[in-house]
Amino acid sequence: MEQQKSSRKVRAEVKFPLILIHTPYGLSFFDKIARTRPAKFYAKFNIYLMPLITALAIFLIVGSMMVLFSNGVARAGVRDAGPQSNLLIPGLNPYLPWTYGWIALVITIIVHEAGHGIVARIYGIKVESTGLVLILGIPIGAFVNIEREELARTPLKQKSAVLTAGPMNNMILAGLCLLGLYLIVSNLTVLPVTGVPKYGVQVLGVGDGTIAKSIGLVKGSIIQNIDGTQVKDIQDLTRILKSNLGTSVIITWKDEKGTLVTHAANLPKTVEPDKGVLGVTITNVAPDPKMVLNRYKAAFGSNPIALLLPPTMVQGSVPYSDLMASKYSSSILGETYPIFSNFLFWLWFVNFNVGIFNALPIGPLDGGQLYNSLIEEKLKTRTKRLKNASLILSAVMTAIVVASFLLPWVFR
């Protein structure tokens, strides 16, 4: 492998609202890593792995569509979260925390792009520059500029290794984070539970302009009674409220300090079939900490994909969520264990999603580029009418992804 030469100049490129800072400083690092045996083995190892990641991505997309087709509650939940919940952008996605989200996103993109750059250098393909991507002066990721003409002339197997390296790096880091998360969760012990109400539903969030907001319900409140009837779980709350539509009810709850609060609420005459009445996000109160911990640990072996549900979405089912974290202790990490757990979770979550998304056979994505090259290679001696096969594949896959996003709003 010939040592790559580059100028030491740093330059900025503005593509509103993004600013790209081009720098040569990562190139020597790529060359150094590319000369090692593990890197060369890795380049050969991942040549044929893109289809596996693509198959997993399609399986998950089709599986989610089947759930949304058959489950009205799931469709309502997606609509309540809004279309922005499909974006990996902290601040827009309501479930993606600002701090953990940005850190995970930046690390994910750096790892992804480094994979492309290092494997490109193993095969002597020129990397023109590396750099940072900024929006409003805030770093949001990184990039690697590979010389496109050289990559186009590269043999298909080597091109596959270069294009697969990005998603594969993300999948490997996701797996390592999941392993780290398992080690932390396995070390947790349940603390004695005292002073927790034996029935009720706990409010995790309150929507703006809702009945709950107007009567003073806040995050952490525990709804216990409606018109003197005990609310034992979420199903109870839904049943009681919907049987009293169009009337005024007396709601009793405990606030975060344990103070009993009573307030009248005028319920609407009708609500959409899959919509809530009060406008709150809730969970059953006082889930058994031991049961929650055991179920979460079991998921690592039985269904790791279920662990993609964010702790901000299913707080009553995740031992390191805001709701449950105080119910456990860690002999190794002490009270800081939720910080490490959430950091590893969001690294796993973002890397996994970026990895499988980039493996899809869509246009400029890594998967799209590889499958386009594969189709061109296989069809170059065949009928010209099949030359549009790559465009058809990309269009079909794009339509499936768009349909999965729109389905909750189309089928109500």
Structural overview:
This protein is α+β, with helices and mostly antiparallel strands. The chain folds into two domains: 11-182 and 348-410, no CATH class; 201-284, Pdz3 Domain (Roll), CATH 2.30.42.10. Helices cover 48% and strands 16% of the residues. It has 13 helices and twelve strands. It has helices spanning 27-34, 37-45, 50-70, 72-81, 98-122, 148-153, 156-186, 211-215, 234-242, 289-302, 337-358, 366-379, 389-410; strands at 11-15, 18-23, 127-135, 138-146, 188-190, 201-206, 222-226, 229-230, 248-254, 260-266, 280-284, 328-330. Strands 6, 7, 8, 9, 10 and 11 form a six-stranded antiparallel beta sheet that branches. A four-stranded antiparallel beta sheet has the order 1-2-3-4. A hairpin with a 5-residue loop joins strand 9 and strand 10 (260-266). Helix 1 (27-34) crosses helix 5, helix 5 (98-122) packs antiparallel against helix 7 (156-186) and helix 7 (156-186) runs antiparallel to helix 11. The chain is elongated, with a radius of gyration of 25 Å.
